[in-house]
Structure formats: structure tokens, C-alpha cells
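Supplementary Methods, section 5.1.

A reviewer requested that the exact input to the structure prediction be made available. We therefore reproduce it here, unchanged from the version used in the analyses.
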Amino acid sequence: MSTIPADAPSALQPLDETFETVLVVVAHPDDIEYGTAAAVARWTTQGKTVTYLLATRGEAGIDTMEPEQASVVREQEERDGGSKVGVQHIDFLDFHDGVVEYGLPLRREICRVIRERRPDVIVGSAPELRMMGQLNQSDHRAVSLATLDAIRDAGNRWIFPDQLRGGLEPWGGVGQALLVGGPNPTHYVEVGDHLEPAIASLEAHEAYNSVLPDSFPKPRALVTMILEGGGKAAGVGHAVVFEVWPF
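The structure derived from this sequence is encoded cell-by-cell as follows.
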């Protein structure tokens, strides 16, 4: 989920990591594990609290496995992958893999979790049409855009006020969104000491990885390539790069 295009700016700034709580919001199991998990490993090692929110269970992602079975398998693989980088709390929404639509239901659910978790920072993917040189999946685009909107929704008590009547309070404390995979990264986190747990987090998706084409890079090669690409842009060995959106 983290990459660096060939024409990206080279003057990236180190990320200010004075935050304490992080919510990572993505569409599918394994989205976080394509490099971003290395930053997560760094943060949990620093004592920060990181939680995950996934819009789907990735049930349409394995052609040889019925969705009902795949949802169980892939949810567990995400939990296993999260544990490799120090994440114990992972929430799943009930949207359907492959047909997630941007709209109020998606914004509402992400807003609810933001109000519950009250993070300082949110990490997500960029809502771009192009990612890693190809068309970005529609689920990624929908979840990315809804997440950005839900950050503002969460701080406004008059948006989804039924959640407040249920006991939640507004949360306007998200200072910034860190987006990965976009064409214009602005900041980086050096992750050379966290390469191995990041690789292990992707390797935990064993069932999903097993049905990928033979030509698709294996987890070690892929994660290393992604993080070396970020490192080259940042002038370090390995890095996760972000486009920072302040709120």
C-alpha cells in the first residue's frame, strides 16, 4: 500500500512523530501490509497505540474460495499480520469486498470508529485513480475519500448526531491524515530497523498469497522493494512515504 513513483519529489521531510494514537483505515486485509506495516511496527515499538479499521473482510479476494469461507480466513490473516507489528485491536465493518460505495453509510461508520478510538493521526491510502502504475481499485478510492470526509464529520456534533445520543462525543482531535500510495508524498518515516516485522506481517496472509500468480513478487521481495523505493526518495535505506494532510 506504500509506493513511490519515479517522478516523485526528492525533498521529503521527516514526519513529526509526537502523536500517541493512530487509526489506520483501509478497504481490505493486506492493504496495510504492502509496506505501511513497517511504520506501524516503528510506532508500536515507540509505545504508540495503533488500531486498524477495515471496511471489508476481503471475501472476494480468493477466486478458489467461497466468500463465506474467505471472509473468515482473511480476517484471521489480518489479525495475525497485525500481531507481527504490535497491533492487537482490529475492527471490521460489514461492507462487501469489491462493491464498496462512497456515500453516507460508509462515512457514518468510519466516523463512528473515529469517535470511539479518538486518534491523533489517521493513516489511509490516497484516493487516486492510479496506484503503483495501474488503476486503483474502486474500494480503495471509496474508503480513502470517505475517511478524509469522516475526519471532519467526527468533530461536528451536528453530523450523525444519533451517535452522540448513543453515548459518543465529537472528536476533532485528528491533527493530520497520512496518505500512502499517492503521487505527491511530502514526508517519510525511516523504517530500516522494522523491515523484518513488516515482511512477516505480509507473509501472515498465507492463503491470499498462495493464489497470487507466480510472477507476482513474494512478500520479502515486494516489501523490500517498496521500502527501498521510499528510502531512495527520502535519502535513507528504507522508508514509508506519506502525503500529509493537516486538519
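Residues 39 and 51 are 13 Å apart (CA to CA). These observations are discussed further in the main text.
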